[in-house]
Amino acid sequence: SPFSVLGEIVVNEVNFVRKCIATDTSQYDLWGKLVCTNFKISFITDDPMPLQKFHYKNLLLGEHDVPLTCIEQIVTVNDTKRKQKVLGPNQKLKFNPTELIIYCKDFRIVRFRFDEAGPESAKKVCLAIAHYSQPTDLQLLFAFEYVGEIYHNPAKKVNGIDPGGGGGGIGSASGQQTPLFETYSDWDREIKRTGASEWRVCSVNEGYMISTCLPEYFVVPSSLADQDLKLYSYSFIGRRMPLWSWNHPNGSALVRMANIKDVLQQRKIDQRICNAITRSHPLRSDIYKSDLDKCLPNIQEIQAAHIKLKQLCVNEPFEETEEKWLSSLENTHWLEYIRSFLKHSAELVYMMECKHVSVVLQEEEGRDLSCLAASLIQVMLDPYFRTIVGFQSLIQKEWVMAGYQFLDRCNHLKRSDKESPLFLMFLDCVWQLLEQYPAAFEFSEMYLTILYDSARISLFGTFLFNCPHQRVKESTEFAISKNIQLGDEKGLKFPCVWDWSLQFTSRDRLLFHNPLYIGKRAPCVQNGAVKTFKRSKKNYSSTLRGVPPALKNGIISEQEFLPRRNSLILKLKPDFLQQTESQSNSMEQYFRDWFAKPVDLHGVILPRISGTQIKLWKLCYFRWVPEAQINHGGFITAFHKVSLLADEVDMLNRNLRQYKSNSSLQGNCSELDQSRMYFRANSFNDTSGAPDFLSSSFPFSPVGNLCRRSILGTPLSKFLSGAKIWLSTETLANED
């Protein structure tokens, strides 16, 4: 059944509907039934999809389905009366629609015709879609319906998966669970993993007694007592006390802090917090404060840039004579803002790595720009966050638990003036790093794109709320109204997005893996304890085995700059009174030196941010544009070839292991099936060509999304084919 998700009910449907596949002809149109449920809109047809050779299946969604939370705008049209109307919730429709156009948040446009359908039925289904896709209350989102069903029918778990839980479910070799940072122990493990010996887990906010927009557990300097924290909390906006994010092996800490609203107490409290952070540094180094509100674009500017980007990628017709595409792209400011986040984060990496100082990210509420900046800094500094499980734990720690307002920023209830795509901008920044250092990341760009899509499937609790407290409060109210016994549980447990088996088969999840990744061995279990990646002098800045130490690419060699653990000689504090000019000179020198060395994939990575090095993430923004699709082209062709090579290497390794251990042939066969690659070599020296279905949109298909005109031979088509682009005559001059 297409409606197999627990709690899903059909609200309205209409037969004899045409789904438009092309604008200039109706010969490819599909006939079927348009259905609105409380979870998605669905088009059910027996017709095969024309012009399409591949479909990546989501277990929750059919080929033609759109989740309600992914709908941006609903437009009804009547051809004969020449009327059209954007449908809001609870609105009346005074004409019978002949056409329905649905604009989606992922840049898709889907179009249906009602020429043969009953006029009243067509009107009813349009009104139902408008009503159910624009709920007035958080508890009307589908996740609540689903979880209510789970608690009333414990035996009916989707795909046998419990709601909640971090689920490794990625097919990752380690099979590790993603830490959710909802417990004391997850934070304690992260302290130990990063060697932050002068920091402690604080439980002063248990039961959200101090702040409703902080997690129950977070990390603070050991020298700060709980009583002091309670006292200081009143002075911070939202009572958001400073949050520890990460510790560098040299002792520098990364801390997030909201502004202090109490002007009279401001200096005193600020001084005490800073002193405590300084005391937590082994060298008692100074603190570098970065006021993110002053040096980064604000959420309104980012939202405006996103709207312009969508306009450019979705609404603008690609004219044959379109000569302004690149300047239009520049005018969106999207790439400019990506560049500013990467640049600022890299500068703060320099402060921690080279100047050995703790960095405090200051922001008014400390739950928007600081989520993005803190995450980027950690991705650049710590190779653990470039693995799948590490990256997921980073999002849990710096976004979900730190109170990023997913409900408002993603605008799930369609009525927020606070909408802003910061989470997408973060994924785009990570994609830029992945594009520049493909062998440093365990995950692929397909993984990042699917993660972005998952933020708009209202089944998962991960990206549904403004903070952990909201989940507990709203779900407790919901449980009482539905007579659900919670017992000792704090609120209802919603399905977690990291349980990827809810959405994809284990075979399809292999596309998440980057075949170019050069990883370390999986963590081993000793005496029942997992020995995870521990950063020490030996492995934090070590390159591949056999490479001479002279080729190391730690930002600077640790022997030179870090005192030995037992050394009595402590480095002098950096003198922040020296002129800013010399500071920026030393920073520039540091970047020059770093880029002059070979990259250490298990050390620090820094972004290249000049000119054309910041690119448009084509897979994410162009995948639904039929004219932008390059058949048998795009990055996927290289991905396919590398996958076959990696699979061959894996096969050789398995054969060698079998040869050495003389194990039975049977045991080897089961191991051969466990390829970590989506594309597999059928035999050694497999020279078979790329599959016919590969295109620049893979694994997505733009077929059936609203078409525009041909773009062949225009600057845009050259851009898509990877031709070198000159942004301006100034850039041309610089290149010479």
From TrEMBL:
One of its GO terms (biological process) is phosphatidylinositol dephosphorylation. Residues 181-621 form the Myotubularin phosphatase domain. Belongs to the protein-tyrosine phosphatase family. Non-receptor class myotubularin subfamily. Keywords: Phosphoprotein. It comes from Phoenicopterus ruber ruber. It comes from the Eukaryota. CDD domains: PTP-MTMR10. GO terms for cellular component: cytoplasm; membrane. PROSITE patterns: PPASE_MYOTUBULARIN. It holds the Pfam family 3-PAP. InterPro entries: MTMR10_PTP, MTMR12-like_C, Myotubularin, Myotubularin-like_Pase_dom, PH-like_dom_sf, Prot-tyrosine_phosphatase-like. PANTHER family: MYOTUBULARIN-RELATED, MYOTUBULARIN-RELATED PROTEIN 10. This is Myotubularin-related protein 10.
